[in-house]
């Protein structure tokens, strides 16, 4: 199918099939009929049309595609790309309009449904050609799409048997072939009868050769008369459009009659002129000679260019009736005494005072002729950057002052600056740059191509780009430009051959062209193994590495790796070297030959942290391993945070540890107490003076007791270690006591137990190390004490207290369960119901119960109220029965009147503020 009307065709086998050539040749041979073409002895019309046919450019139609589709469907071997199953005559199919690939209808419907669900436009693409579609296939139609569920066809599967009737885009005809798959055959019909461009001739050509857009030229020259003198069209061949002005050369006189001039016919403008002898002349053009024209006084005259001279001479401009004042117009006609045009003009000593073109006033004395300005004006230079004082006469002559300022505008290439002296377009360029920056700040788009079209010509860069192109061999020959350079247009006269020699790109070959060969690469691998099948490639690209598995020894020589790649230069078993270096850290290098030979990683390059216990504080050294530097861990001040408390334990503050070789650690110190601590101390003294006991704080926290209850043996061991540590510190009088104790790595629950236990002993504790391997260290403080009881004793006391509390709760609950209900709980109040609405309805209900004289409705929470009365202060069985009857009335009437949905009996405390229990069953005891 043609994409556009044909304009030229190359008569070659790789461009059009021989069948189409034969058909068109027959059509051309029939054009020699006298009804269609007029032949001449010099050149035949058919030969001209045949040459035109040879110049046409057709798109080759792959007619073998339709035959292949039909043959494979007939044989049942055509494969659907979606399900990879075969398609035969009994299948229901759908064909893509882009690549004409045939799919099973159900498969392509599922494919389209799934793919369209992932795009915002609900579109999907063909699996073969990726053509975008916006409709999901639903119907099984014939190839042309006009018949649904076509009946079997013995010649073409899935064909309706009718003509395809597809409208060609490049001509006026339709496809005449039977309903078929694949591309449509080339149009072989005859085109319409077309007139030539001038309309003198007509002819009919095959549709492929018919120039629908450009038209055609006939052999008869255009004979249209184009002027009043009878001249015909100057174009000697058939043409389209107007013939144009008459260009015939004619000889005419000028208007003054002095010269005879040869000129083109369309330039003649005839006019009637009168000579000095009284003769009438018809002139056609002007000779541009000066002609002396006398006024009616026959004394004064004026020299004018060659023009048509009228019969009546013009009135003298110096006549008394014309001149009514002096030159400047300040002396009126009454003061002018002139009788003829030859009388002198009146004298005037006044300044002229006429307004000049420059805007100034003429300051000369009244004078004949034009005024001349002698003033100057302040004007800006061309670039508008400097002011100059310029005479008005120079401005009237078109002179413009120039400064020495160089233009700072960027050229079109965005690389060079104009730098011209006093550029008149600099301000326009700077304004364009400001507008561009404003658009960028406002996140708006601008089109550089549109700006380039409106850019001043002087700001177009005319230098050569000369940048190295992507090919790396040639340089850009275009004008200096912004953005990347285009592709290299150089070409080579040698064929481009791939490495295997099976793919060739014939000359000329554009520079930078990469040859793509689909054959298998034939290069042998140096190891002798068979390489992975891959496409042929250039020599600068290496072949894929050998992937065969071989047996190799690892670098450290401890393991034989049987699955090592043949192309691998080194093989590693993955084992890390665990040999300790001088610094105490492991070598930690993976499978190296040097480690097997006893050469381990250098201590100077050790990447681990030091992590040794500092001497000045119980923290670990956080510096990078400094064994090679011969420096101690305490040479650097410890900056790890520690928590300090006051003596009473009320205040806490985080400070840096601060321990170093010259300074002790801040751990164990106490910060000063503040006013709040003094208030609490005085309160404690007052309570002691008045025998008011404070609530006793437990010696051990609940977490310590809970862990001790589960792991008594381990917890008792840690308790004894801390007691022994404190005891040793207390007994060491003159010797320097040990203030810190480090526990080994333990789990997080165990570390939490140690921290909580240290709080009971008033010891400072802190975790150190990494996760899953964290230890705990403790430090003596000024507040450190030995608890008055052991954990085992505290646990026994806590359990006794818990048993007593549980017993009291049981007794209280038993008393509540045996007590009588004394109120009605109104629940689930309807939307918009207030307390006043509930009180009014309750008062209406209580008219049936005269025993209740006073009552109250209490608000408990949203949509919940409580009814009570002083009558139910001392409850017994009889009063509870009355309350039960009231409950039934409340439940029925409050629900009927849409006040509340449910009511229950309950027991309120003595203050009538809290409900102690609610009878959910609403059943009498």
Automatic annotation (TrEMBL):
<comment type="similarity">
    <text>Belongs to the NFX1 family.</text>
</comment>
<protein>
    <submittedName>
        <fullName>Putative transcriptional repressor</fullName>
    </submittedName>
</protein>
<dbReference type="GO" id="GO:0000122">
    <property type="term" value="P:negative regulation of transcription by RNA polymerase II"/>
</dbReference>
<keyword id="KW-0805">Transcription regulation</keyword>
<keyword id="KW-0862">Zinc</keyword>
<dbReference type="InterPro" id="IPR034078">
    <property type="entry name" value="NFX1_fam"/>
</dbReference>
<dbReference type="GO" id="GO:0008270">
    <property type="term" value="F:zinc ion binding"/>
</dbReference>
<keyword id="KW-0479">Metal-binding</keyword>
<dbReference type="GO" id="GO:0000981">
    <property type="term" value="F:DNA-binding transcription factor activity, RNA polymerase II-specific"/>
</dbReference>
<dbReference type="Pfam" id="PF01424">
    <property type="entry name" value="R3H"/>
</dbReference>
<dbReference type="GO" id="GO:0005634">
    <property type="term" value="C:nucleus"/>
</dbReference>
<feature type="region of interest" description="Disordered">
    <location>
        <begin position="25"/>
        <end position="44"/>
    </location>
</feature>
<dbReference type="InterPro" id="IPR001374">
    <property type="entry name" value="R3H_dom"/>
</dbReference>
<dbReference type="GO" id="GO:0000977">
    <property type="term" value="F:RNA polymerase II transcription regulatory region sequence-specific DNA binding"/>
</dbReference>
<dbReference type="InterPro" id="IPR036867">
    <property type="entry name" value="R3H_dom_sf"/>
</dbReference>
<dbReference type="InterPro" id="IPR000967">
    <property type="entry name" value="Znf_NFX1"/>
</dbReference>
<keyword id="KW-0539">Nucleus</keyword>
<feature type="domain" description="R3H">
    <location>
        <begin position="717"/>
        <end position="782"/>
    </location>
</feature>
<feature type="compositionally biased region" description="Polar residues">
    <location>
        <begin position="26"/>
        <end position="43"/>
    </location>
</feature>
<keyword id="KW-0863">Zinc-finger</keyword>
<keyword id="KW-0677">Repeat</keyword>
<keyword id="KW-0804">Transcription</keyword>
<dbReference type="Pfam" id="PF01422">
    <property type="entry name" value="zf-NF-X1"/>
</dbReference>
């Amino acid at each position: 199918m043609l994409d556009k009307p044909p304009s030229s065709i190359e008569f070659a086998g790789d461009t059009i099939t021989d069948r189409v050539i034969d058909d068109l040749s027959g059509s051309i041979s029939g054009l020699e009929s006298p009804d269609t073409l007029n032949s001449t002895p010099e050149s035949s019309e058919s030969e001209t049309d045949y040459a035109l046919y040879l110049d046409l450019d057709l798109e080759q139609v792959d007619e073998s595609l339709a035959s292949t589709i039909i043959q494979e469907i007939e044989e049942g071997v055509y494969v659907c790309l979606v399900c990879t199953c075969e398609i035969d005559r009994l299948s229901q199919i759908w064909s893509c309009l882009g690549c004409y690939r045939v799919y099973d209808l159900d498969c392509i419907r599922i494919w389209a449904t799934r793919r369209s669900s992932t795009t915002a436009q609900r579109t999907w693409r063909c699996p073969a050609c990726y053509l975008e579609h916006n409709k999901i296939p639903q119907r099984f139609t014939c190839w042309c799409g006009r018949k649904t569920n076509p009946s079997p066809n013995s010649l073409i599967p899935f064909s309706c048997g009718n003509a395809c009737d597809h409208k060609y885009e490049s001509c006026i005809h339709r496809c005449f072939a039977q309903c078929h798959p694949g591309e449509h055959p080339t149009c072989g019909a005859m085109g319409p009868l077309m007139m030539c461009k001038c309309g003198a001739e007509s002819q009919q050509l095959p549709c492929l050769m018919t120039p629908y857009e450009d038209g055609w030229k006939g052999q008869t020259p255009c004979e249209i008369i184009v002027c009043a003198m009878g001249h015909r069209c100057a174009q000697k061949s058939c043409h389209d459009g107007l013939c144009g002005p008459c260009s015939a050369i004619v000889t005419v006189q000028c208007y003054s009659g002095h010269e005879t001039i040869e000129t083109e016919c369309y330039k003649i403008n005839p006019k009637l002129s009168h000579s000095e002898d009284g003769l009438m002349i018809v002139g056609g053009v002007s000779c541009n000679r000066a002609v002396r024209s006398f006024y009616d006084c026959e004394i004064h005259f004026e020299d004018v260019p060659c023009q048509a001279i009228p019969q009546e001479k013009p009135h003298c401009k110096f006549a008394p009736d014309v001149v009514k004042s002096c030159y400047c117009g300040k002396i009126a006609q009454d003061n002018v005494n002139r009788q003829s045009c030859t009388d002198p003009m009146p004298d005037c000593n006044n300044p002229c005072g006429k307004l000049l073109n420059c805007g100034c006033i003429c300051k000369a004395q009244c004078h004949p002729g034009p005024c001349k300005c002698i003033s100057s004006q302040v004007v800006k230079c061309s670039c508008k950057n400097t002011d100059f004082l310029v005479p008005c006469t120079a401005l009237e002559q078109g002179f413009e002052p120039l400064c020495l300022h160089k233009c700072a505008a960027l050229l079109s290439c965005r690389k060079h600056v104009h730098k011209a002296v006093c550029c008149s377009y600099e301000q326009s360029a700077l304004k364009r740059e400001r507008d561009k920056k404003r658009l960028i700040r406002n996140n708006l788009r601008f089109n550089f191509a549109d700006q380039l079209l409106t850019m001043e010509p002087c700001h177009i860069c005319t230098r050569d780009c000369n940048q190295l192109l992507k090919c790396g061999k040639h340089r850009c020959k275009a004008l200096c430009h912004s953005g990347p350079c285009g592709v290299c247009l150089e070409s080579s006269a040698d064929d481009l051959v791939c490495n295997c020699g099976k793919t060739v790109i014939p000359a000329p070959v554009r520079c930078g062209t990469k040859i793509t060969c689909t054959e298998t690469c034939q290069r042998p691998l140096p190891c002798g193994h068979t390489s992975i099948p891959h496409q042929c490639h250039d020599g600068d690209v290496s072949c894929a590495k050998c992937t065969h598995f071989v047996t190799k020894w690892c670098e450290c020589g401890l393991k034989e790796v049987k699955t090592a790649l043949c192309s691998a230069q080194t093989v590693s078993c993955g084992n890390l070297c665990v040999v300790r270096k001088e610094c105490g850290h492991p070598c930690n290098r993976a499978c190296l030959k040097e480690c097997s030979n006893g050469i381990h990683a250098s201590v100077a390059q050790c990447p681990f942290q030091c992590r040794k216990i500092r001497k000045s504080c119980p923290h670990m050294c956080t510096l990078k391993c400094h064994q090679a530097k011969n420096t101690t861990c305490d040479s650097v001040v410890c900056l790890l945070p520690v928590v300090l408390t006051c003596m009473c334990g009320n205040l806490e503050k985080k400070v840096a540890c601060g321990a170093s070789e010259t300074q002790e650690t801040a751990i164990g110190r106490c910060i000063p107490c503040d006013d709040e601590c003094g208030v609490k101390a005085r309160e404690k003294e007052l309570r002691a003076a008045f025998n008011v006991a404070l609530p006793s704080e437990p010696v051990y926290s609940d977490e310590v007791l809970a862990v001790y209850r589960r792991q008594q043996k381990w917890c008792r061991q840690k308790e004894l270690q801390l007691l022994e540590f404190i005891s040793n510190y207390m007994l060491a009088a003159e010797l320097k006591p040990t203030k810190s104790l480090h526990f080994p790595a333990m789990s997080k629950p165990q570390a939490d137990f140690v921290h909580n236990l240290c709080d009971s002993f008033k010891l400072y504790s802190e975790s150190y190390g990494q996760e899953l391997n964290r230890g705990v260290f403790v430090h003596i403080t000024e507040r450190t004490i030995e608890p008055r009881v052991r954990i085992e004793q505290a646990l026994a006391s806590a359990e006794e207290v818990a048993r007593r509390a549980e017993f009291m709760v049981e007794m209280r609950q038993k008393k509540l369960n045996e007590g009588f209900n004394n109120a009605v709980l109104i629940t689930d109040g309807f939307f918009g119901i207030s307390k006043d609405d509930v009180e009014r309805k309750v008062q209406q209900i209580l008219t049936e119960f005269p025993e209740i004289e006073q009552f109250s409705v209490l608000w408990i929470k949203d949509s919940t109220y409580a009814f009570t009365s002083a009558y139910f202060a001392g409850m017994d069985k009889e009063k509870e029965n009355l309350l039960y009857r009231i409950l039934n009335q409340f439940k029925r009437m409050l629900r009927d009147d849409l006040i509340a949905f449910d009511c229950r009996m309950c027991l309120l405390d003595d203050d009538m503020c809290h409900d102690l229990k609610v009878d959910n069953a609403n059943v009498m005891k």
